[in-house]
Write a structure and sequence with these properties.
Distance between the termini: 60 Å
Structural class: mainly alpha
Order of helices and strands: HHHHHHHHHHHEEH
Helix content: over 70%
Shape: elongated
Strand order of the largest sheet: 1-2
Radius of gyration: 30 Å
């Protein structure tokens, strides 16, 4: 019960601000609307005020979609400036309630659609990468076994020690499958595609990776060489280079 009271106490000032400011905005819209148009709204002036309050109550959602820090400033502010700005925003939302709610709903749908699309694209990348890997594995002959307990050749050890943290991360991600796409490695490492492409180019220069394009594939894939696989295996178990 105490937690509920604390919660209500925390949101009460903001809630009252939104309701009062939204009501004022709705009433202002009623006063500035032509009489025939105003008469078509249910409950007249009260209807305008009610819709204005509803629109104002959605202002926090709108601000979150804009990634605005105004609400945080209102909660933490020691002066009234942020509060006045927030109240003004609520009044505007109430004054333009119909357009505001319509715009907000369109933006929410757009955001949800984008997130669904991004999720589908990520899934397609992973599925395509698995297909690429399974198909290319038929062309691959032999199996590279690394022996982390044996000392590395001096030249390979020197190459391994010269790798940057980003290149090491890309190297280990590339070792997860026989062949990989740039997009797949980027997802695993949490990097941009251009960063991964640049790191792969460095690995290719050092003889740790290569680009392959098997028959029937429309794009180049990334595959580690024997040296690259050995270094990746050592990095995975924390062995000395």
């Amino acid at each position: 019960m105490t937690e509920i009271l604390e919660f209500l106490k925390a949101i009460l000032p903001l809630s009252l601000t939104m309701i009062i400011a939204g009501g004022f905005g709705g009433f202002a819209a009623f006063l500035t609307t032509a009489q025939p148009a105003a008469s078509q709204v249910r409950l007249g002036a009260f209807g305008f005020c009610l819709v204005g309050m509803i629109a104002a109550l959605t202002v926090p959602l709108f601000l979150s979609l804009l990634q605005s820090k105004l609400l945080d400033d209102v909660k933490n502010s020691q002066d009234s400036e942020a509060y006045l700005i927030f109240a003004g925003f609520c009044i505007l939302a109430g004054f333009t309630a119909k357009a505001f709610l319509s715009t907000l709903s369109d933006k929410v749908i757009h955001e949800l659609t984008n997130k669904m699309t991004d999720g589908e694209e990520r899934a397609q990348i992973q599925i395509q990468e698995l297909k690429d890997n399974l198909a290319y594995s038929r062309h691959l002959k032999g199996h590279v076994e690394t022996a982390a307990e044996h000392p590395l050749p001096p030249k390979l050890g020197q190459i391994g020690r010269s790798l940057t943290d980003l290149e090491k991360s890309v190297l280990q991600a590339a070792a997860n499958f026989t062949v990989r796409t740039i997009d797949g490695i980027a997802q695993d490492c949490g990097l941009q595609g251009n960063q991964v492409a640049a790191a792969v180019a460095k690995l290719v220069e050092r003889g740790l990776a290569s680009h392959v394009k098997p028959p029937g594939f429309g794009r180049r894939l990334v595959s580690l060489t024997e040296d690259g696989l050995e270094l990746a295996a050592r990095l995975a178990i924390g062995a000395a280079l």
